[in-house]
Amino acid sequence: MALYVVQFLTGLANASSLFLAACGLSVIFGVTRIVNFAHGAFYMLGAYVAYSLTQRLEGGLGFWAGILVAAAVVALVGALLEMSLLRRIYRAPELFQLLATFGVTLMVEDLVHLIWGPQDLVGPRAPGLDGAVTVLGLPVPTYDLLLIVLGPLVLGALWLLMHRTRWGVLVRAATEDRDMVAALGVNQKWLFTGVFTLGIFLAAFGGALQIPRTAVTHQMDLSIIAEVFVVVVIGGLGSITGAFLAAVLIAELNAFGILVLPGISLVLMFLVMAVVLVIRPWGFLGKPIQTGVKTIGEATRPWRPWSPATSVLVAAAILLAALMPLLLGSYGLSVGAQILIAVVFAVSLQFQMSTGGLDSFGHAAYFGLGAYGAALAVEWSGLPMEAALLVGPLAGLAGALVFGWFCVRLSGVYFAMLTLAFAQITWSVAFQWVEVTGGDNGILGVWPSDWASSPAAFYWLTLAVAVVCVLVLRHLVFSPFGYRLRAVRDSTVRAEAIGISRQRTQYVAFAVSGTAAGLAGALFAFLKGSIFPDVLSIPTSIDALVMVLLGGVATVSGSVVGAIVYTMASIWLMSATDLSRLVLGAVIVFLVVAFPQGIVGSLAGLVAGPLERWRRPAGAARPVALPAEGRQ
Amino acid sequence: MSAASAKLEVAALNSFYGPVQILFDVGFSVGRGEVVALLGRNGAGKSTTFKSLMGLVDRREGAIRFEAEDIARLPTYEIARRGLGYVPEDRRVFAELTVEENLEVGRQPARGDAATWTPERLYALFPNLAEMRRRPGGQMSGGEQQMLTISRTLMGNPSLVLLDEPSEGLAPKIIEQMADAILAMKREGLSILLSEQNLHFARLISDRAYILEKGRIRFSGTVAELEANTAVRDQYLAV
Ligand SMILES: Nc1ncnc2c1ncn2[C@@H]1O[C@H](COP(=O)(O)OP(=O)(O)O)[C@@H](O)[C@H]1O
Ligand SMILES: [Mg+2]
Fold first, then answer.
1. Is B40 on the interface with A (CB under 8 A)?
2. Average pLDDT value for residue range A317-328
3. What average pLDDT does range B137-147 have in this prediction?
4. pLDDT at A598 (0 to 100)
5. Would the pLDDT of A160 be above 90?
6. What is the pLDDT of residues A85-123, one digit of tens each?
7. What is the pLDDT at residue B120?
8. Sorting pLDDT into bands at 50, 70 and 90, what band is A290?
9. How remote is the CA of residue A246 from the centroid of ligand 1, in Å?
10. Which pLDDT belongs to residue A618?
11. Closest residue of chain A to B108, computed from CA coordinates
């Protein structure tokens, strides 16, 4: 009994920091409609800055001053970020907003590395609160009790701020209807900056408060962001009280889950989220949100089948790729195989994004499941490569069927956050279930069969798989199924009116996409000969997104080009600099601000005009592309 | 109406939602202290005209002079601060906010050129609201919401109020109350531009009228002239 009480208290203490981070994200989303991926990075920064300050400041006053000043400093950085970056992208598609703030996260990671070094840091204990209080005969850290009180206090303070001040009333009004608030004479610019600053302050405060409890590490940002997403999705985006309830629920689940079985807490979190979302798709206290700009790139050109000239070009490109083993050495061929795998991965994501409108932030889950599926098939069942290459996509399919069942019930940012949360949960399972996955040590010795073991043979194998995979997905795009997908993407209401079920159609697309990603993952395991949890990590999901967006989301060929360019660039970047995340993050931010259509999309927009005119002499009417496409 | 004394003057206004043009060369004016009706059937472009004035459409071209100053390039909040008050047709009360809080969102500093409103004055104008100061906007009847949305706009002390279909969906008794309130606003010196689908309500309070059809102005004249002109009314207005 006593143990349960103590565990309950620990859960409450954990809930406080989680609540601080989550309610900041929620408030920011409510008003600006931006899901701030960088929220975890600011949480981490809060902890690092607080660490440095409390090293220098003495005594109880110094400690608390350090925590508060750290949160204020980080909030100021947040304000600068809002004014310099976010103001430019408030009207951009939400996917780009997520990407840009993820780019900021990458930059912060490397900056933290530069400033504070690679090692974990252990902060000071809170003066006067470093002891323990005995509860039912068991010790509970005094600091935990303070946190338990702090959570509701902050909730109360926020409630007063939102209900008893003009600023708070304006924030709540803007959460409901931004345009109307502007039409009543309120300058939203400063409202947005203020809200963002407040949200970042809360996140940094939450991070800073952790330093007496846990080490300050580089993983704080991504580990908290996944939990925060879960909390916010369960609590309802935009709701502070919802965030509090969900934070308590999740933290308690973790606290008790650990008692039952270490590692099960994640599965529990997953189950609870799933149940809540099925019953209340907008969370405890959330409301259906009108998601903003949905399609990416206004200049989405109509889809059309290849012309004979294009077919010849494609065949030539494939032939050229097939001749590579005559030109390249084994390193070059392994890079080539890696690029081809990236192509499959990117095209699988592009399939659900462009045709289905499903902007997944967790595509790594299916890639990783494919990789682990194949690797485990070899390690545990001793299956040969040929069989393992079937197990991989099946594992991807299974994951997509389970996760997709929940995800396709949602759309927009909810969909993106849920996919990310599922991927992160999969990552945690791979990381923690050491007996099966080897945890951080991964699975080694995943080698191809003899016939495919030479670099050239393996390269040809990946090439064959990639070509077949891209052609099959492309074929699906132009099949009746592809039309149904685009119909539900473009107008769900009208599509459902003619008897197309949005959920079922998107579910199938999600499954197809997951299967293809699993195949890419399986090949990847055999290419590397080993597999580690980072194939499931957030950066892997982002890699896929950037590849697709680089190429312009609208075309299959764009994704192929995007995958080639991005993979080569990142391999080069890794070898050229230690600060690859800083560079990559800056590039992502730049791309989002400069090319809201994706690179190939933007260039194609520039080129398409003159090209069309050149192809079609003036006056010669051309039939509209759509009917022709319909017969394909 | 000479240009010099006009409160609001719109000329050659073209407005777009995305690539679609909705308004074509729309021009009209509202004089000081005048009540002008913008009439037209559903889909004629009345709401789009109002949104264009407030800078709430995707793109607009043309001249919008308010107090002889071109406001066509100003952001929405600046337009509101110059004294243009907007009452949208779907009311858009903040459902989670109480009556008092809704009014607070609309509050702006007093202006020299227009009547100054306080919650107490508005409660006097709309006694129903006085009884529900703490009620969330989402739990009010349509008529009460309409009173609230007008009051909220008046809290900004505007000198010209845009009322988009103020009588839509209201019970006859409430409509009378609404007409009285609009006339009271007129007595305070406010200029008013209101839209309606037919003449029933508009004739009670308006001085002049314009008729909009498919995004173009088709008629302009006094209300008396319009009442006399059955052909125009039959062609362009709802019954
Ligand atoms: N947000 C919008 N996007 C695209 N078209 C719109 C939008 N709002 C209105 N329209 C179109 O503009 C035209 C005029 O609409 P509106 O101004 O609302 O007319 P009214 O207020 O006179 O009924 C209609 O054809 C309507 O379909
Ligand atoms: Mg209208």
1. no
2. 90
3. 94
4. 56
5. yes
6. 999 988 888 788 888 999 999 999 999 999 999 999 998
7. 96
8. low
9. 41
10. 35
11. A185
- ∠ CA A297-A546-A468, nearest 5°, is 95
Distances, alpha carbon B184 to alpha carbons A588, B124, B134, B181, in Å? 57, 11, 25, 5
Give me the domain span that covers residue B92. 3-236
Q: Between chain A and chain B, how many beta carbons pairs sit less than 8 Å apart?
A: 59
Nearest CA in chain B to A174: B94
User: Which chain B residues are Cβ-neighbours of A181 within 8 angstroms?
Assistant: 105
For testing contact with chain B, the best of A184, A239, A241, A294 (most B CBs within 10 A): A184
Question: In the beta sheet, which residues pair with residue B13?
Answer: B26
Interchain proximity B86–A169, CB inside 8 Å? no
For chain B, how many structural domains are there in total? 1
From B55, which residue of chain A is nearest by alpha-carbon distance?
Answer: A183
3-state secondary structure chain B: CCHHHEEEEEEEEEEEECCEEEEEEEEEEEECCCEEEEECCCCCCHHHHHHHHHCCCCEEEEEEEECCEECCCCCHHHHHHCCEEEECCCCCCCCCCEHHHHHHHHCCCCCCCCCCCCHHHHHHHCHHHHCCCCCEHHHCCHHHHHHHHHHHHHCCCCCEEEEECCCCCCCHHHHHHHHHHHHHHHHCCCEEEEEECCHHHHHHHCCEEEEEECCEEEEEEEHHHHHHCHHHHHHHCCC
From B93, B82, B84, B75, select the one nearest B152 (Cα to Cα). Answer: B93
Residue with more model confidence, A585 or A628: A585
The residues spanned by each domain of chain A are 23-217, 295-537
Q: What is the mean pLDDT of residues A395-414?
A: 90
Chain A nearest-CA distance from B10, in A, is 19
- Tell me what the pLDDT averaged over chain A comes to: 86
Alpha carbon of A300 to ligand 1 centroid (Å): 24
CA of A500 to nearest chain B CA: how many angstroms apart? 27
> B56 at the A interface (CB within 8 A)?
yes
B70 touches chain A (CB under 8 A): no
Q: How far is CA A259 from the centre of its chain?
A: 30
CA distances from residue A584 to A103, A547, A558, A559 in whole angstroms, order as listed: 7, 12, 20, 18
Instruction: Work out which ligand 1 atom sits closest to the CA atom of B164.
Output: 21
B81/A180 Cβ within 8 A: no
Residue ranges around ligand 1 (CB below 6 Å):
B 17, 20, 22, 40, 42-48
Q: Which of A163, A169, A290, A293 to mutate to test the interface with B (most CBs of B within 10 A)?
A: A169
Q: Do residues A101 and A588 make contact, with C-beta atoms less than 8 angstroms apart?
A: no
Q: List the single residue in A with minimal CA-CA distance to B151.
A: A184
Taking 50 as the threshold, does the pLDDT of residue A609 lie above it? no
Q: In CATH, which of 1.10.3470, 1.10.10, 1.25.40, 3.30.70 is domain A295-537?
A: 1.10.3470
What is the rounded average pLDDT of the residues A183-209?
96
3-state SS, one letter per residue, for A490-547:
HCHHHHHHCCCCHHHHHHHHHHHHHHHHHHHHHHHHHHHCEECHHHHCHHHHHHHHHH
Instruction: List A residues 148-177 in contact with B (Cβ-Cβ < 8 A).
Output: 166, 169-170, 172-173, 175-177
- Residue A596: the pLDDT is 64
Greatest mean pLDDT range, A63-77, A265-279, A474-488, A552-566: A63-77
Cα B23 to middle of ligand 1, angstroms: 10
Average pLDDT over residues A472-496: 85
Look up the CATH number of the domain holding residue B83.
3.40.50.300
Contact A263, A60 (CB under 8 A): no
| Residue among B13, B15, B17 whose CB has most ligand 1 atoms within 8 A, to mutate | B17
Structure tokens at B57: 């459409």
| Percentage above 90 pLDDT, chain A | 52
